[in-house]
């Protein structure tokens, strides 16, 4: 499987990273070289193998569904590039 | 008082308790070395005032006889751990100026044990790299040089190892996703241990690949590594993969006696083209452990060669998801053109804020998780990961600890591998398999290359058996008697 320039642009958009036209060929080359290198995994027969989804055999802990934290909006917003009226502010989404 | 910066953590602890010197003197000595070592670029942020204040408080506690294990010990923290009120960047432009309002569990644990933070050390951007060249704050230099040629310290915990090898801190925190503690430790003649996945809380640590990330210490002795890890490890309800197990007294139980233990030598690690220097060191390590009483056995880890490609699917996949949070809204950089849309802002911010290696990995991760490719790449890699973990489980039926080289070479020069991502990735060929299996691993300085550069040996153990790993490391340390140190050229 190799990817073309259109796929590079599509993946960049999915990843929300702006890519300039002049950078596409280099990215296409680099991504293809990595992808063709990882391709070697197809040599292994994994038809009877379960995927590893947890490093240690464990069940996820549960806790009481209760409020244990909070009430410090100003700390949550302290690093925001733009905060207004106690909210994160972003460019207008709906006209 | 430069002598103070030559002490081990264990010796410094004795000296402080015995009143030979104060925590303020010890801290001042290290701050002076940090200033003198500016050329190494090991730190992104230093906190001398807070350190001296904490040292004065440590002296009061020592006087009062109320002093936990690390009271007054000056350490450095990788700039991947969130520190309350102190800038935390992950060495990325996208987080420049980010000042956490909370403390990571690891740094909080160290603080509670009395350790003094001198500052935040540089790393590869978001811990993605093996040379520290991807830091947005400039390349860190290795305190060791090849003649006049400067070298990389390894990565990603490059600033931490440079600080410890350069006598700027008695110990430092690191994180290891695929070798980021062990490989740089090998490159700088320091000891670095990655504990079993789940031992150290990930809470408050900037996430790279959550199923692999583990914190651990970098020190100048095996005993110091044990002491520091005891303070860092422990159950944390705030991390859902933190393991609820008591932390053993690793330092108190440390023993270089290998009698009754079996050391496995995995034949697949004898790569084609492995340098004779590294092979000879590995051979030497085997002899040393035998002399310490161990029985040497051959073991097989048949899927070893698939570990790196597996890692370079899984780690970028997890990273692409973890790094989605850097969008110019909650913290860090925002790049927004007048009148642009929200999506434009996300894309412009991430384009400007992430460096090339981080972008590359996010895009690979996005691709392997995208519709139509998930099964072929991500699911396949998860299955191979199972096989790699099974390899280790079978090997540990035949042995108690596994000995390998830590890295395929000594430290290299900046620029030597940065143009070819895959040749850079190959640095982690010996460290990545145990990361995928979640097992504990340590790198111990074991000798010098022909060029006079440090080389490390790696020991891997069963899950939660850090004690055997540390004991075997102590045996290697005793036999290797590694006393070489860099010549402090950076002060000239």
What this model shows, in words?
The complex is a heterodimer of chains A (about 100) and B (about 500). Chain A has about 100 residues and is mainly α. Chain A is about 30% helix and about 5% strand. Chain A contains three helices and two strands, in the order αααββ. Chain A has helices at about 5-15, 25-40, 75, and strands at about 85, 85-90. Chain A has a two-stranded antiparallel ribbon with strand order 1-2. In chain A, a hairpin with a 2-residue loop joins β1 and β2. Chain A starts with a helix and ends in a 7-residue tail after the last strand. Chain B has about 500 residues and is of the alpha/beta class. In chain B, about 35% of the residues lie in helices and about 15% in strands. Chain B has 15 helices and eleven strands. Chain B has helices spanning about 10-15, 25-35, 50-65, 105-110, 160-165, 180-190, 220-230, 275-290, 305-320, 340-355, 355-370, 375-395, 420-425, 430-435, 465-480, and strands at about 45, 75-80, 115-120, 170-175, 190-195, 215-220, 260-265, 295-300, 400-405, 440-450, 455-460. In chain B, strands 1-3-2-4-6-5-10-11-9-7-8 form an eleven-stranded mixed sheet, sandwiched between helices. In chain B, α2 packs antiparallel against α3 and α7 runs antiparallel to α15 (about 465-480). The two termini of chain B are about 20 Å apart. Chains A and B meet through α1 and α2 of A and α9, α10, α11 and α12 of B.
